[in-house]
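Morning!

This is the sequence you dropped in the shared folder:
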Amino acid sequence: MTASKVLHIGHYNSQVFDPICTNPENLRKIIDTICRNHASNVDLSDWVHSRYMPTPTIVQAASALYLNHSVEDITRSDASGDSLQSTSEQVMNIIEHARRNHEKSICFVTGVPGAGKTLVGLNVAVKQFEKKDLAVYLSGNQPLVSVLTEALARDKKRQFEEKNPGKRCNITEARRSVHSFIQIVHHYRKNSLTKLKRPIVNGILEIDPVKVKKHKDDGYAEVEHVAIFDEAQRAWTRQQLANWLKRKQNIADFPMSEPEFLIWSLDLREDWAVVICLVGGGQEINTGEAGISEWLRAINERFPSWNVFISDQLAGREYAEGELTDLLKSNEKVRRNHRLHLAVSMRSFRAENLSSFVHYLLEGDSARSREIFQELCERNYPIYLTRSLHDAKRWLKEIHQGSERYGMLVSSQAQRLRPLAIDVRCKPDTVHWFLDDTNDIRSSNFLEDAASEFDVQGLELDWTCVVWDGDFRRQGNTWTNHSFIGNKWLNIRDETRKAYQLNAYRVLLTRARQGMVLCIPEGNDDDDTRKPAYYDETYEYLTSIGLTEPDFEVVRKREIRILD
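The structure's back. Tokens below.
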């Protein structure tokens, strides 16, 4: 290495170094120089023999499960108490008990945002496939199903081609294989609907023997013994399902809600069946969602022989707004189990308290929010605040490392961010947004398309920028809710819509595994739809909690020059 050739070694504030490119002649010199400049107290023997335990994204975790890793291999080593492994084992025990005793059961798993409820569901589906007792993972969340399906299909294709040099795997076939156990709930429901007699008379569903062959063990049921319903609180009410079926499939006067129909479909089995409901707290964000009470009402009124296993947190305000007490008391087959609750977020090893911070922030409890914010700072989970979208984007680009993903998030009601080149009417392609690299303009890393709560619920990024519009703003000592209609903001008075908007921001603020920046626009005195007053109090509230501007001196890499 000559004096004219300078090697820059850069590392982040986290002490993670950039990869160093070298030739064989300079390798020893580089190693010696780094050892001299960066001596540490690390016991290299312990380091070499210790376990590598990264915190995976849901896509990475799903891929690992699909490629025959166990849930123990991919979960956090320091998550104590209610863990993914413990909850998965408990669910598998419930399934095994139903199979062995020829019973039917429904099980409710709760968890804080990012705790791994989806991962539990996927793990159960994979384990059941290994046992030849088929299971299906169902979700009404189209972006989640699309992203997971495409990620697993790409993995399947890549693994096949690595094991079989010179041979190609058809991506369409790979996608079809994944669809066998991950489905959008509408497709699964359609299969059950094809068996029914038409028209529906007196609100009674009947099987048409001409349309389906009865099987010895399962009667007229679907092939799967186990149905796993992710985000079960978002299942449709009877009215929402009836309207959709009338409009899309010309089925009039459908008599059941989505929870009731799914249980009915599994109840057709003549041997055994289990429904697993994965329940997120405070994440109802759309009209027509039935909530958990509808599942229990259906069990109590139509399927009293079913066993009911619930998390001890299910009746809490965070999950059911206190509506379930009477329903649970009236069913003698209810059994509570603390292992069915996931209390610790695995979204980041630094962000265990993030969901609590967001909860108190949205509750308007600035004192408690400030306390938890300080704890997050101490655990190196940064949350910054800025009025400049340019600075927010710059922070994302400088803070991320290697293949980490980052992106912009906005509320679906953020109608007045167009002056910042963010238009919520332009929906991102979620598959490309979550899976493709920085060079693709459709990628989240390109920072051109912003995703809403509907695009990211159940998914996550490493770093996020939440751009805050005037739809949900601080005024005095409370939050106020607004919808942009025509050419002006109007107050939202309906309590259900207010709750949806609150939960939209809850979702947006809990998507980051490693850290986030909140961007509150300055507004514009010349634009009545973007008055500074619509944004300033929100900014002031967040600063009162302790949030500050991004510290680019902390983010920026330090460099060491090595001369010959």
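Headline: Residues 403 and 437 are 8 Å apart (CA to CA).

More detail when I'm at my desk.
O.
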